[in-house]
Amino acid sequence: MTQVGHDPKDSQIWYYNGTPAACTFVALDYVLPKFANFSVPDLVVTGPNYGTNLGGFVWTLSGTAGAAYAATNRGIPAIAISASNQEVPYFEVKNRTNPATWAAQASVKFVENFIATSPKNGPLLPLGYGVSVNLPVLTKKNQNPDFVQTRFTGNAHVNEAVLDKEKGTFTWANIKPYAAGVNACINGDCSLPGETYVVENGKASVSFYTVDYSAPSTVYTKSLIQRVASFVSSDK
To answer: Origin, by domain of life (predicted)?
Structure first.
């Protein structure tokens, strides 16, 4: 297999042997300009990933998130979708009852509805904004989950290192009870339910993100600015 190429049976399916964010860049800077009749897409959809990316901690580690961030930072609207199904190669998904198929169908449904409700003749998302969608465990009886507007924080998990004394190696586990830091609601609507809670209860979460990491202008931020004013200059 070469580093970049397309499925031998479908020239519309391309692969790149690299990180998810690198895949976004290769698509934008190589595949589309060279093999499509356009170079800047209206929307980048990353996923559906196998495995969810719930809460701010896991989201920060996520390749699915990184691929979406790569597009958002380039000024291209992006939706990151993460599902609860197990890993399976796409060429082994050959029936409509495979959880990966259900995840794909739910993803397409959301994306189509999102596009349909977008403003005419305008971008699908404001500059610097993106969407994170997490799908619950899908079954024959729950192939079409309800989508719920959520926030990243709230019932979110963060990990701890757990030593296997016999092997002398480490694995991970979720800290219990919930860690306060990852669940501090600083940005957004704090009245919304946390995406972790929503997905664990069988519904799909929809959280909006921005690529501006700066702390919001709050009483806490202003107090920090005043605190460092004696040794950190301001060029405003």
So the answer is: Eukaryota
Query: What confidence tens digit (pLDDT) does each residue in 28-58 have?
Result: 999 999 999 888 999 999 999 999 999 999 9
Domain that holds residue 124: 41-157+188-227
Q: pTM for this structure?
A: 0.93
Joined tokens for residue 92: 């082994």
Q: Which of 13, 21, 169 is nearest to 93 (CA)?
A: 13
17, two tokens:
């042997």
132 is catalytic: no
Whether residue 198 lies inside any domain: the answer is: yes
The CATH code of the domain that includes 203 is 3.40.1210.10
Number of domains in the chain: 1
Q: Which residue has the tokens 């979406």?
A: 68
In a domain, 166, yes or no: no
d(Cα 205, Cα 145) in Å, to the nearest integer? 10
DSSP letter for 182, please.
Answer: G
User: Which of the residues 82, 107, 132, 205 is marked catalytic?
Assistant: 82
pLDDT band per the 50, 70, 90 thresholds, residue 167: very high
